[in-house]
Structure formats: C-alpha cells, structure tokens
C-alpha cells in the first residue's frame, strides 16, 4: 500500500488550511511541506511559523522537505514547529551522519533527499541510520515540472540496496508524479508518493486521490 503526500507548494496559500483539509478528508497520509531558502534552490517558500500554525489543526504526518543550505542551523526550529519527519538534502550536508543523529535526538524521523544527479552510492553508509530516502524525480525548486524518466533505474537501485542491506525504510519520490506515471515508480520500489500539482491542481481531488491509489496497485 502506498502513502500519499500532497505537496502544499501547489495549494492556494490564501486558503491554505481549507485546501489541506480537503486532502486530509480524501485520506492522504502525509502533508509534504516544501521549505526553500533561495540559496540551495532558486525559490523561497515558507518556514517554521507556517508549520506551527497548521500543527494541531491537521491530523497528518508533517513531512518537512528542507531545500535549504546549512540545515543543521534550523533543524530544532522545524522540530519545535511540529515536523514529524525531517528530510535534508545529501548535497546540503557536509556531515550527513551528524545531521541525521541530531534529527533523531530530537525524537523525529530522519530522511535524506537526493537530487537527480546525486548517486545512490552517497548514502550507502548511512542507510541503516535513516527512516526514508527521498528520490527527487525533478530538480528541486518548483512544482509542476516534468518527471525525469532516468530516475526509474535509480529507484530500483535504491530498492536493491535496501534489500541487500536488509533495511526496511521508506522510499519517497517527489516531482512530476501523476496518476498516469505512479505505477512505474511504485513498481520500481517507491512507497510514499509526493504529488503537488496533480492533486491540488485537480478539479476533483477525491477522485484524483482514488485514481492514484487504484493506479499504484502493482
Ligand atoms: O520538492 C518539490 C519541488 O522542489 C516538490 O515537492 C514539488 O512541489 C512537487 O510538485 P509536483 O511536481 O508534484 O507538481
Ligand atoms: Fe518536495
């Protein structure tokens, strides 16, 4: 069974809580919150105050995708704001193992994201220390981009590594995922599906969520 993580980047920020209520009512399990700093990625979004304003009003896993430089500096602020799962980019962490340990010391789940050009090999030695790997299926920074097909063998490579190392962690995919291509990523090994524009841009969110689930049966 997959878990769905609508990305609020594609929600209507002037109506954020009511937009999120719709995906919560539709049964989506994770709330994917894209944090961008204008340095690590060429875009700026939201920070801890928005997360703490939503916390307590929404019963979903708060999945915080940090696309920021120097994430160590802000991990505690995001944990305090209400993040359940904190995802840092491999490319943004000089001492990735230390960063993961500091997320876990705060009692939060830890995930590591890989940009499309970053090899699976770079997380081989910390695979036992994390709860999730996020395979970026677009270059981070914006919603509504096209899925990069060459990420399918990468997801498969990660799945094989997990099986070889006997670790049972989540594999999340993020970027350009739709009801049309979800089967491909799930067949390759993904089990948490981020979708921004495909969900919030839909005229019938309940139906789109249903379609994501039906189409992901492999
Ligand atoms: O992290 C990111 C983009 O950097 C994503 O979470 C996007 O927000 C997903 O949006 P879609 O590609 O599904 O529209
Ligand atoms: Fe994201």
TrEMBL record:
<feature type="binding site">
    <location>
        <position position="34"/>
    </location>
    <ligand>
        <name>a divalent metal cation</name>
    </ligand>
</feature>
<keyword id="KW-0119">Carbohydrate metabolism</keyword>
<feature type="binding site">
    <location>
        <position position="65"/>
    </location>
    <ligand>
        <name>a divalent metal cation</name>
    </ligand>
</feature>
<dbReference type="InterPro" id="IPR000056">
    <property type="entry name" value="Ribul_P_3_epim-like"/>
</dbReference>
<feature type="active site" description="Proton acceptor">
    <location>
        <position position="34"/>
    </location>
</feature>
<feature type="binding site">
    <location>
        <position position="174"/>
    </location>
    <ligand>
        <name>a divalent metal cation</name>
    </ligand>
</feature>
<dbReference type="GO" id="GO:0019323">
    <property type="term" value="P:pentose catabolic process"/>
</dbReference>
<dbReference type="InterPro" id="IPR011060">
    <property type="entry name" value="RibuloseP-bd_barrel"/>
</dbReference>
<dbReference type="InterPro" id="IPR026019">
    <property type="entry name" value="Ribul_P_3_epim"/>
</dbReference>
<feature type="binding site">
    <location>
        <position position="32"/>
    </location>
    <ligand>
        <name>a divalent metal cation</name>
    </ligand>
</feature>
<feature type="binding site">
    <location>
        <begin position="141"/>
        <end position="144"/>
    </location>
    <ligand>
        <name>substrate</name>
    </ligand>
</feature>
<dbReference type="GO" id="GO:0004750">
    <property type="term" value="F:D-ribulose-phosphate 3-epimerase activity"/>
</dbReference>
<feature type="binding site">
    <location>
        <position position="176"/>
    </location>
    <ligand>
        <name>substrate</name>
    </ligand>
</feature>
<keyword id="KW-0170">Cobalt</keyword>
<keyword id="KW-0479">Metal-binding</keyword>
<feature type="active site" description="Proton donor">
    <location>
        <position position="174"/>
    </location>
</feature>
<comment type="similarity">
    <text>Belongs to the ribulose-phosphate 3-epimerase family.</text>
</comment>
<keyword id="KW-0413">Isomerase</keyword>
<feature type="binding site">
    <location>
        <begin position="174"/>
        <end position="176"/>
    </location>
    <ligand>
        <name>substrate</name>
    </ligand>
</feature>
<dbReference type="InterPro" id="IPR013785">
    <property type="entry name" value="Aldolase_TIM"/>
</dbReference>
<keyword id="KW-0862">Zinc</keyword>
<feature type="binding site">
    <location>
        <position position="7"/>
    </location>
    <ligand>
        <name>substrate</name>
    </ligand>
</feature>
<keyword id="KW-0464">Manganese</keyword>
<protein>
    <recommendedName>
        <fullName>Ribulose-phosphate 3-epimerase</fullName>
        <ecNumber>5.1.3.1</ecNumber>
    </recommendedName>
</protein>
<dbReference type="GO" id="GO:0006098">
    <property type="term" value="P:pentose-phosphate shunt"/>
</dbReference>
<comment type="pathway">
    <text>Carbohydrate degradation.</text>
</comment>
<dbReference type="GO" id="GO:0005737">
    <property type="term" value="C:cytoplasm"/>
</dbReference>
<feature type="binding site">
    <location>
        <begin position="196"/>
        <end position="197"/>
    </location>
    <ligand>
        <name>substrate</name>
    </ligand>
</feature>
<feature type="binding site">
    <location>
        <position position="65"/>
    </location>
    <ligand>
        <name>substrate</name>
    </ligand>
</feature>
<dbReference type="GO" id="GO:0046872">
    <property type="term" value="F:metal ion binding"/>
</dbReference>
<comment type="function">
    <text>Catalyzes the reversible epimerization of D-ribulose 5-phosphate to D-xylulose 5-phosphate.</text>
</comment>
<dbReference type="Pfam" id="PF00834">
    <property type="entry name" value="Ribul_P_3_epim"/>
</dbReference>
């Amino acid at each position: 069974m997959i878990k769905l993580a609508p990305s609020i980047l594609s929600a209507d920020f002037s109506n954020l809580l009511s937009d999120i209520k719709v995906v919560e009512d539709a049964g989506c399990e994770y709330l994917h919150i894209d944090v961008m700093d204008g340095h690590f990625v060429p875009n700026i979004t939201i920070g801890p105050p928005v997360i703490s304003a939503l916390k307590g009003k929404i019963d979903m896993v708060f999945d915080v995708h940090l696309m920021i430089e120097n994430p160590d500096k802000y991990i505690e602020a995001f944990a305090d704001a209400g993040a359940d799962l904190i995802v840092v980019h491999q490319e943004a962490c000089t001492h990735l193992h230390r960063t993961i340990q500091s997320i876990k010391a705060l009692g939060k789940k830890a995930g590591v994201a890989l940009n499309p050009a970053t090899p699976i090999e770079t997380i081989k030695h910390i695979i036992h220390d994390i709860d999730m790997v996020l395979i970026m299926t677009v270059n981070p920074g914006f919603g509504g981009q096209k899925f990069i097909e060459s990420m399918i063998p990468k997801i498969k490579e990660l799945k094989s590594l997990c099986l070889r190392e006997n670790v049972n962690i989540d594999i999340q995919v993020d970027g350009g995922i739709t009801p049309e291509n979800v089967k491909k990523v799930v067949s390759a090994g993904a089990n948490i599906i981020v979708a921004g524009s495909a969900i919030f841009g839909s005229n019938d969110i309940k139906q789109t969520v249903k379609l994501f689930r039906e189409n992901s049966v492999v």
